[in-house]
C-alpha cells in the first residue's frame, strides 16, 4: 500500500461543507481520511508533505474544453491539453466533440478514451456529438455512444437550428438519462456578428451579435426541456436575461443546469480594445453591467458551473483582421487563477467558486472526483490563493498561446496537482 | 340484433360482445378455409370493391380472398389507376363508386378519418382496412383470434406491444381491443416513437424493452419504416436493434411459451431477429391465415346480421 499524507492544509471541500485546517490521508490513490480529525490520528508510516497552510481543494473539473485531436493536432493534442489542465489544477475535463472527424461514432469515442488512457495525465471524458457531423439534422446513436463511455451529448459550438430535431433529440436522450449540453446562439440572428452588439461595436465598425441571439434559442431549449423532461445544460451563457430564464426553469422544477466561461466573468467587451482577436469569443464578451450581473448569478448558484471554454487557436486563425479571425481562447491553465479574482473582490465566496469548478461539474455529469470525501479518488489541487504572478506567454503549457490573459496579473496559483494520489504537476 | 353496426370503421365502436361475436364467426371461417372446397355461397351475388388509396399487397390479397371464399364478386381498385391521381376528391370517388351499387367497400387511406368520411357518403357497408395512424380493426381482430386460439383466452394476459407506436394504426386498434377484452397492455419504445398522452391510453409505458417483456404472454412487434431510422426518430438501425429489436436475450424475459407476433411485413434484423421470426414461439404465419378468416367473418357479419340487413 502506498500512503501520502498532506499535513497543515486548509481544506475547502464544498461537497462536505468543509473549510478547516487538517490533514489529508491518501491510500492507494483514494482519500482515506480527511480534516482535523485525520490530523489528530496520523498513521506512523507514509510520505508526509507539509503544505504549510495552503489550500487543498478537490481537483477542478472543466466541463467545456476544445482539443484539436483528432484533426487539429497543431493546435492541441489530448496529451498537451492534459498537461495544461494539470498546470491549472484541473484533474478532469470534458472534451467537446467538434474535432475532425466529429466524435459522433462509437469508434471515435473509443479513440478518445484510448488516447486519454495512454497519453493524458488527467482524466479526459469524451462528449459525443448530438447530431451526425454536428449538422443539426440527424441524431447520433445516443445509446451506443453513452454505453461506449460518452458522458454528455452536445452539438459543441453549434446550436441546433431545427426545433423539431431538438425536441426529438431531447425526447430520445431522456430515455437514457443523458445530459444534453448546448451552446445557444441563433445563427441567423447573429448574422455576421463578431462581438457584442452596441455602441462599442459601432465605434469599432464591427457587426454586432445581439443578446437576443443567445436568449431566444435558450428559451426555446428550456421550453423543450420542460416538454420532454430531458436533462439540459446550457454550456455558455453571457447575459443576465439568460440567467433569469435558467432561474425560472429551475424554480419550475425542470432538470436544467447552466454554465459559463471564466472569460465572461472576468472580462468585458472593452478588453477587445484595438481589435485584439484573442478576445474574440463565442458568445462575445458583453458589457461590464452584464459581467457584474452574471457574477451575481454565479454567487447565488443560478449559474451552476464555471468552465474555461478552452479553445486553442493557432496564428493561422487568430493573426487575422478581427472580423476574419476564429472565436476562442485557451483557459485551462488560468481557470482557477482568474476565478480567484472573484474571491478576492468579495463577489463570490471561495467555497462557491470551488463548487462551481469541481463539485457541481462532477454531480451534473456523473463524473468521479469533485469531492474529497473518504473513499473518493484523490484528485486534488494544492493552491496558494494569494500568490502574485503575471502570466507570461513563454510560460504557457498549452500548445496554442491564444490566451485572453496575456501579461495579466493574478493573485493565486496552483502549486501542485494530484490525480488519483499521484502528483501530475508541481509549480 | 346480433351485430348492430353498419360499418366496421374501428375497434373503438365495438363492444366486448361484438368482438366475441366476430371472433366466434372467424373460428368457423377458419374451418371453411381449411377445407378442400373453400367456396361458400354466403355472399353470392354481392359486389365487394377493394378501394386502396395506399399501396398494400397483403391486406388487399387477404380481403380479396375472403370475399371470394364467401362467393362475392370482388373488384380491386388501387390508387395507381384511380381517378384520385387526376384530381378527383375522395368524396367524389366515393359517390362515383356508390353509383355502381356495390354491397361492401373495403377502404385503405393514408389519412386518419378518411374512411369514416367516405362511409358517410355511400349507401353500402364500409370496412376500414387502415386509415393513417388511426385504426386497422381487422388486424386487431386477427391478432385477437390468433391469441385466443393459442392461449384459450385474452382476458388476464399480459401483452407487450413493441416499436413504432406513434405511427401505428395496428397499435391503436390493438390497445383498444385488448383493453376491451381485459388484457393487460404494455408498450415499449423509445419516447420518440410514442404518441403524446400514451400513458393515458390504457397501457403501461416502458422505455426498456427487457423490463417490458418481463413475464409477458404475448409479444407484438411493430414495423419500423426505413425512413424513420436514419436519425429523425431513432439514430440508426443498429442502435434500434440493440435496444428495441426482439432477439433471444430479450425474449427470454417473457414467459417461455410467450407468443411472438408481427403484423408484417417484417424488417428482419431491425425490429426482430430472423431466428425469432422463424422460431417456435412465432405465430406470424398463423396471423396471416387468421387474417383471411377474420375478414370473412367481418364481411359476412356486416352483410347478413348487421344493420345492412333490411
Question: SSE layout and pairings?
Answer:
The complex is a heterodimer of chains A (427) and B (310).
Chain A: E1 3-13, E2 18-27, E3 30-35, H1 36-40, E4 47-50, E5 55-58, E6 60-65, H2 78-87, E7 90-95, H3 106-119, E8 123-129, H4 142-148, E9 152-154, H5 163-176, E10 179-182, H6 187-190, E11 195-196, H7 199-204, E12 208-209, H8 212-228, E13 231-234, H9 240-251, E14 256-261, H10 262-266, H11 288-299, E15 305-307, H12 315-318, H13 335-344, H14 350-365, E16 380-390, E17 409-419, E18 422-426
Parallel strand pairs in A: 1-4, 1-5, 6-7, 7-8, 8-9, 9-10, 10-13, 11-12, 13-14, 14-15
Antiparallel strand pairs in A: 1-2, 2-3, 5-16, 16-17, 17-18
Chain B: H1 16-33, E1 47-52, H2 58-69, E2 73-78, H3 90-99, E3 104-109, H4 114-119, E4 125-131, H5 137-151, E5 158-162, H6 169-180, E6 184-188, E7 204-206, H7 209-213, E8 218-221, H8 237-244, H9 248-251, E9 259-261, H10 274-277, H11 284-304
Parallel strand pairs in B: 1-2, 1-3, 3-4, 5-6, 5-8, 6-7, 8-9
List the keywords.
heterodimer, A: 427 residues, alpha/beta, Urease, subunit C, domain 1, TIM Barrel, 2 domains, eight-stranded mixed β-sheet, eight-stranded parallel β-sheet, 14 helices, 25% strand, B: 310 residues, Rossmann fold, four-stranded parallel β-sheet, 11 helices, 37% helix
Describe this structure in words.
The complex is a heterodimer of chains A (427) and B (310). With 427 residues, chain A is of the alpha/beta class. Chain A has two domains: 3-56 and 377-387 and 409-426, Urease, subunit C, domain 1; 59-365, Metal-dependent hydrolases (TIM Barrel). Helix content of chain A is 32%, strand content 25%. Chain A contains 14 helices and 18 strands. In chain A, strands 1, 2, 3, 4, 5, 16, 17 and 18 form an eight-stranded mixed β-sheet that branches. In chain A, strands 6-7-8-9-10-13-14-15 form an eight-stranded parallel β-sheet. In chain A, α5 crosses α8 and α8 runs parallel beside α9. The longest helix of chain A is centred in the middle third of the chain and has 17 residues, at 212-228. A five-stranded parallel β-sheet of chain B has the order 7-6-5-8-9. Chain B has a four-stranded parallel β-sheet with strand order 2-1-3-4. The model of chain B has no long low-confidence stretch (mean pLDDT 93). Chain B has helices spanning 16-33, 58-69, 90-99, 114-119, 137-151, 169-180, 209-213, 237-244, 248-251, 274-277, 284-304, and strands at residues 47-52, 73-78, 104-109, 125-131, 158-162, 184-188, 204-206, 218-221, 259-261. In chain B, α6 links the parallel β5 (158-162) and β6. Chain B is built from eleven helices and nine strands. Chain B has two domains: 7-135 and 289-306, Rossmann fold (3-Layer(aba) Sandwich), CATH 3.40.50; 137-282, 3-Layer(aba) Sandwich (Rossmann fold). In chain B, α2 (58-69) crosses α11. Chain B has 310 residues and is α/β, with parallel strands linked by helices. The chains are: A alpha/beta (427), B alpha/beta (310). The interface between A and B is medium-sized, with 17 and 15 residues. Chain A: Residues 343-425 form the Amidohydrolase domain. Chain A: This is Dihydroorotase. Chain A: Pfam families: Amidohydro_3, DHOase. Chain A: It comes from Pseudohoeflea suaedae. Chain A: Residues 53-237 form the Dihydroorotase catalytic domain.
Amino acid at each position: 500500500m502506498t500512503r501520502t499524507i498532506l499535513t497543515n492544509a486548509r481544506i475547502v471541500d464544498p461537497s462536505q461543507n468543509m473549510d478547516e485546517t487538517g490533514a489529508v490521508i491518501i491510500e492507494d490513490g483514494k482519500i482515506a481520511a480527511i480534516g482535523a480529525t485525520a490530523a489528530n490520528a496520523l498513521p506512523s508510516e507514509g510520505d508526509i508533505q507539509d503544505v504549510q497552510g495552503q489550500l487543498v481543494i478537490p481537483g477542478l473539473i472543466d466541463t467545456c474544453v476544445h482539443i484539436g485531436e483528432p484533426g487539429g493536432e497543431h493546435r492541441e493534442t489530448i496529451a498537451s491539453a492534459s498537461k495544461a489542465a494539470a498546470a491549472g489544477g484541473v484533474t478532469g475535463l470534458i472534451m467537446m466533440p467538434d474535432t475532425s472527424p466529429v466524435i459522433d461514432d462509437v469508434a471515435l469515442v473509443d479513440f478518445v478514451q484510448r488516447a486519454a488512457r495512454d497519453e493524458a495525465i488527467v482524466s479526459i471524458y469524451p462528449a459525443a456529438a448530438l447530431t451526425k457531423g454536428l449538422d443539426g439534422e440527424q441524431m447520433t446513436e445516443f445509446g451506443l455512444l453513452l454505453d461506449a463511455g460518452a458522458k454528455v451529448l452536445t452539438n459543441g459550438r453549434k446550436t441546433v437550428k431545427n426545433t423539431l430535431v431538438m425536441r426529438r433529440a431531447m425526447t430520445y436522450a431522456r430515455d437514457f438519462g443523458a445530459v444534453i449540453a448546448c451552446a445557444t446562439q441563433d445563427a441567423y440572428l447573429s448574422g455576421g456578428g463578431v462581438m457584442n452588439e452596441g455602441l462599442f461595436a459601432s465605434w469599432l465598425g464591427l457587426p454586432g451579435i445581439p443578446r437576443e441571439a443567445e436568449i431566444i434559442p435558450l428559451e426555446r431549449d428550456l421550453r423543450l426541456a420542460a416538454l420532454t423532461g430531458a436533462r439540459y445544460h446550457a454550456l455558455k451563457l453571457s447575459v443576465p436575461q439568460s440567467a433569469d430564464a435558467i432561474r425560472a426553469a429551475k424554480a419550475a422544477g425542470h432538470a436544467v443546469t447552466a454554465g459559463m466561461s471564466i472569460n465572461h466573468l472576468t472580462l468585458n467587451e472593452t478588453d477587445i480594445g484595438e481589435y485584439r482577436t484573442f478576445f474574440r469569443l463565442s458568445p462575445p464578451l458583453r458589457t461590464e453591467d452584464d459581467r457584474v450581473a452574471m457574477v451575481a448569478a454565479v454567487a447565488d448558484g443560478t449559474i451552476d458551473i464555471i468552465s474555461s471554454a478552452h479553445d486553442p487557436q493557432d496564428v493561422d486563425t487568430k493573426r487575422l483582421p478581427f472580423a476574419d479571425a476564429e472565436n476562442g481562447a485557451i483557459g485551462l491553465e488560468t481557470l482557477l487563477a482568474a476565478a480567484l479574482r472573484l474571491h478576492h473582490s468579495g463577489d463570490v465566496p471561495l467555497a462557491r467558486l470551488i463548487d462551481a469548478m469541481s463539485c457541481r461539474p462532477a454531480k451534473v455529469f456523473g463524473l468521479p472526483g469533485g469531492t474529497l470525501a473518504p473513499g473518493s479518488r484523490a484528485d486534488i489541487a494544492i493552491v496558494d490563493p494569494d500568490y502574485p504572478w503575471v502570466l507570461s506567454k513563454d510560460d504557457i503549457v498549452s500548445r496554442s498561446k491564444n490566451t485572453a490573459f496575456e501579461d495579466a496579473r493574478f493573485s493565486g496559483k496552483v502549486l501542485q496537482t494530484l490525480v488519483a494520489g499521484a502528483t501530475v504537476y508541481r509549480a | 340484433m346480433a351485430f348492430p353496426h353498419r360499418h366496421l370503421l374501428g375497434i373503438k365502436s365495438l363492444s366486448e360482445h361484438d368482438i366475441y361475436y366476430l371472433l366466434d364467426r372467424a373460428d368457423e371461417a377458419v374451418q371453411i378455409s381449411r377445407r378442400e372446397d373453400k367456396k361458400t355461397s354466403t355472399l353470392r351475388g354481392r359486389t365487394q370493391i377493394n378501394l386502396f388509396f395506399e399501396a398494400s399487397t397483403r391486406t388487399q390479397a387477404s380481403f380479396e380472398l375472403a370475399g371470394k371464399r364467401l362467393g362475392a364478386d370482388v373488384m380491386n381498385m388501387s390508387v395507381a389507376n384511380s381517378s384520385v391521381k387526376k384530381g378527383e376528391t375522395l368524396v367524389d370517388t366515393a359517390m362515383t363508386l356508390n353509383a355502381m351499387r356495390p354491397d361492401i367497400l373495403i377502404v385503405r387511406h393514408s389519412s386518419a378519418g378518411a374512411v369514416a368520411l367516405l362511409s358517410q357518403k355511400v349507401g353500402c357497408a364500409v370496412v376500414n382496412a387502415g386509415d393513417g395512424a388511426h385504426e386497422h380493426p381487422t388486424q386487431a381482430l386477427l391478432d385477437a383470434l390468433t391469441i385466443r386460439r393459442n392461449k384459450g383466452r385474452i382476458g388476464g394476459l399480459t401483452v407487450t406491444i413493441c416499436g413504432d407506436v406513434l405511427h401505428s394504426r395496428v397499435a391503436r386498434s390493438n390497445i383498444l381491443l385488448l383493453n376491451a377484452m381485459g388484457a393487460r397492455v404494455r408498450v415499449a419504445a423509445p419516447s420518440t416513437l410514442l404518441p403524446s398522452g400514451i400513458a393515458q391510453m390504457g397501457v403501461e409505458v416502458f422505455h426498456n424493452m427487457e423490463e417490458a417483456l418481463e413475464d409477458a404472454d404475448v409479444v407484438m412487434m411493430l414495423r419500423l419504416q426505413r425512413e424513420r431510422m436514419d436519425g429523425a426518430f431513432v439514430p440508426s438501425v443498429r442502435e434500434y436493434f440493440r435496444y428495441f429489436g426482439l432477439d433471444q436475450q430479450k425474449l427470454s424475459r417473457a414467459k417461455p411459451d410467450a407468443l411472438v407476433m408481427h403484423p408484417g411485413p417484417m424488417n428482419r434484423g431491425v425490429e426482430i431477429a430472423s431466428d425469432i421470426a422463424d422460431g417456435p414461439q412465432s405465430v406470424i404465419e398463423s396471423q396471416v391465415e387468421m387474417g383471411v378468416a377474420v375478414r370473412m367473418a367481418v364481411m359476412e357479419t356486416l352483410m347478413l346480421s348487421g344493420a345492412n340487413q333490411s
